[in-house]
Each structure stands twice: as C-alpha cells, then as structure tokens.
Amino acid sequence: MKFRCERDVLDRAFSIARRAVSGRGGSLPVLSGLHLQLVGDRLTVTGSDLDLTIRVKATVGGDGDGSVVLSAQLGSDIVRAMDSGQIEFSVGDDGASLVSGRSDFSLRVMSADEYPRFDEPGGDSVTLDALVVSAALDQVVKAASVDDARPILTGVLMAAEEDGLRFVATDSYRLAVSDLPGTSILGRDQTVLVPSRALDAVARVLGDASDLTIILGERDASFVIDDVQIVTRLIEGEFPNYRGLIPVDHPNSLVVDRQALLEAVRRVGILARDSTPVRLAMSSEGLELVAITQDVGQARETLDADYTGSDLTVAFNPEYLVDGLEASPGDEVRLETIDSLKPAILRSTGDDQFLYLLMPVRVS
Fold it and tell me: How far from 327 is each of 15, 157, 182, 259, 331, CA to CA, in Å?
C-alpha cells in the first residue's frame, strides 16, 4: 500500500474520522485506530467505536492498493505536526512510513483483517439544505445531556411536525427546540432519537457544504456531506414529554438587546464560581445582573430593557444562559417568566422557530 497527497488532505481526513474513535478500544483494541483503505487513487479513512462510524474519502496519488490500521492519535498528531506539502505514505513489513521533506516517521500498525466490517445503512434518503440544518444543530445539540447514565437524554429528538421537521434536546435543566418549516424526512407523527455525539460530528463537518443527505433505517441513521459519511446507531427508548414542560402562559416579559445581555452575563459570570448563579433583577426600570460568591466578591451590571409584569428576581446557571443567548437568532430576545422557581422561556423577538427553556436556580 502506497500513496502520496498534500498534508492538509490527510490531516482533514484523519481529524474528521478520529472523532468516532473512543480512544480506549474496549474489547477490540483495533478500534483505537483508523482504518485506511486504498483503491486506485481513492483513499477511505474510517474511525469507529461500533456505535458511531465516520468514513472520509479523499483523492490521492495511489501507487499500490491495500489496507491497514494505524493509531488514531499518533497518526493524527504526526500528520498535523508535519510541514505543509506532500506526504508519502507507505506500508511495508516493518509498519507504516510517513515521509515529508526532512521528516520521516515509522509506525507500528494493526492488521486490517481485525477491523470490523460495516454494512451500509438501508432506508429512503432525503437531501436537505446544509446551512439550515447546521443552524438548527448549533441551537439544540448543546442542550443534550452528556451523562451516559441517562442515555435517552444524550439524544436529540427528530420529530415530524405538520409544517416540517423539529429538533429537540434536553438535559433536564434546559430544553432547546428548533423547527425547520417545509422540511420533511419523517412520516406523520414519526420520531427518531439520534445520539447528540453523532449530530455534533455532523455539525462540525457541514461547514461550507451545500447539501446534507440523510438515510434513516430502523436502527441506524446515515448522514452524508460531500465526501464524509457519518453512521450512527439510533437510541431506543421514549423521549420525555417535552411539550408538557413548556408553560403556556407567562405573566412577565423582558425584551433586551441579545448581544448586550450576552456580554453582560459573561462579564458578571466571572464572579459566578463554584456553581454560583447569575441573578437577573427585572423591573420597570430595566434589568440588573448580580453575581455574589462568598469570600471572593460580587459583580453588578445594569442594562436598558423593556419589562412588563411584577418585579422579579430570578437566578440562572450563567453557562446555560450564555448557550441560549448564543443560539438565539436576531438582535433582541424575550425572556418570559412566571416566578423565580418555574421554567423561563427565551425566544428571539419576531422568530418563533427557536425556543430555549431554562430552569431557574433556587437562591436564598
């Protein structure tokens, strides 16, 4: 097996495929590596942990077909460290050789015969606007849980709505809902639960792509973006009844400049240490943000805002509030509240396609 290509081509393929590698290998040490297969001038780099598989195809100068598995971490680190220019990659009896300029690396390899074989997902395919899906994923994926003890909450719900497709994610402390009107990939009332880790990988690849092709099978889903294919097992189980979590009526409403509030939360949040929340004191006079950490100090900042309702102080995890503000489109946001303990809703003014629910933090 032998080929040559630009450093950046191999670096991109390794970096993307490596996101599916667990690093531990588990019962299959070969899964700690990247599988390289060369046919003619077509190189396919695959990374997998059995639940998530990423394949990246690249055009190279081939000079001998073959396949091999090499360490995902070492291979990626070596390629990234090399100077820009041509890399010559070859596999011999002593392992793999990577040569570029005056740099010459030799790596032990694993047998490609030990690497699992993956079937292509079946099912109908649909092609969506990559830019629209990318924006939706940026809004919801962060809200999914990272706690594997609650696997249902580590997924993002894709649900068919009357007017299109809906993405929903929650970690029980916040909830993000993003709608894509006019987008249809599921049957009536159909839902699938996709691991957020897989959709995060999809979002990172979308970039400047124009199209995203999705294939939904009974137990897996495939996402194809140009020369990258991301295949993931779907999560089995019942997603929480998120609709019941969203209050129908909010007597209090605060409208404020999104960027100004975002920057203020970041500044005041510097003093919000050790799980200290940021308090938002809302009144007809505007908005005051406060963070108090015992034995450290306190921070206060006021903002101009339009508020209707009873004077209210409500506290939030600053990191979660920042995530919601970053995800919200538009120049202004509306924060709708009931009291200091019930869920609050963050929306963009004039945009009903994104909703961010945030649980307050109880403070004395």
Answer: 26, 18, 21, 11, 12
